[in-house]
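Kindly go through the entry underneath: sequence plus fold tokens. Please state briefly how this chain folds according to its tokens.
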Amino acid sequence: MDLARLAHRHRSNTAAEGEPREHKRGHGIHLPSTISNVLQLHLEPHFPSPLLRIHHRGDDSTDCSTARRNTPIPSARKSIGFKWRELHGAHDWDGLLEPLHECLRHELIKYGELTQATYDAFDAEKHSRYRGSCFYGRDRLFPKLGLTRHGYEVTSYLYAMSNIDILDWVVRPEVAGPWSTKSNWMGYVAVSNAEETSRIGRRDIVVAWRGTVRVSEWYKDAQILFKPLRGDAKVEHGFLSLYHDKEQSSRFNEESASEMVMREIRRLVKIYGERDEEVSLTVTGHSLGGALALLSAHEAAAAAIPGLSHVSVISFGAPRVGNREFVKELEDRGVKVLRLVNKQDLVPRMPGAVFNEKVGKFLHMDRLKLWYAHAGVKLKVDASVSPFLKHHPHGPQDLAGFHCLETYLHLVDGLHSLRGGFRKDAKRDIALVNKWGAALRDDLHIPSGWFQASMKEIQTDSRGLLVARRREPEDVPQPPRSPLTAPCN
């Protein structure tokens, strides 16, 4: 089947999931009438963040958060209470991956989109006064990004030191600003609300970790240096430093990321445990965030928090983190890990890629404790099966596309079986793949990097001069010293 016919079928299946949509007749490739066929971009001096304006069907316009909410949900929100432990690895996902179970697909995309929020809301703008922070206050994060439908509420933000010796894994302000020159926003803790709790069969605490801003950082900064964690278990020293470092004089990192996340997990487990609710912990992250997810899941499981019944990790494009003893500790403590790996993505081979792939293969040294090892069960996706993606990279930007989280979510949406092609009833808008990158085929005519951060917005001040938009008071970063005291209903 040619690309035009497949894209037309993709559009038709998507439209069938929601209310009827009008389509203009035309030539060439037909794409879903959500984001794909409405990307006519223009800048205005004043409108709500983010900067991107989307004209829907040519007769009205909405900001990106509205379009994001209108993007079709990947699958029906079925009740999974009877099956949640199996979906979270109770049987190591046996029988759920080949072919991919539809309920698992929905859950993977849900956690992936909760992780994607850490990129979409991250201020990496070079000249921003708040560079390295989150664009939004915690009560506005999901509404601004159109993620309230997933049924979670953010309870705490997570920060890590930005002046530790791991170079470009974090960003630093280049102009004097009002918030911090020593910290980066690295993610958040959220908890399922009453409706989602009923659907999934337990109260779910989610920890979502942000990854690296640029994939090129891996090639420059990955270092083959272990640091002892406990006993014979060792992990990459940069990951552990980012997770454990703190500074007494820092407004945002008087506590380490480790201390922040553990304090919030204990608080939430106590609240819902006192209600006699079953509580699970799902830690998710992409790239570097996948490494931090393993560290925090390991710590939470080791703490044996009363009332916490299950700990699982869903990671996307994550590197190796520690040695085989570290992996064994995760297994012994009952942490269930499902790691999604794109066949063309190089980051999961790091750190230690050269050593493990080359030395281990030819000298049979891969069993030594000093070598890095992956944890958990692998779910492999393959960019070559998607008719919408570039298959022959021509430069770093295309290679980065294989690592992009939105590419992973596109491939999960299209995955049925590793022995089959891209499924015909995939529902996720393919334009999202180019949100930050350029992984889609050029002949689809979807602009690369079309998602524009809100702090790039220019507005007119009282003198009529164009100036950078100031943040709303509720979006100015606040030190993580007073977590929410009221639980979700």
In short: The first helix runs from residue 3 to 17.
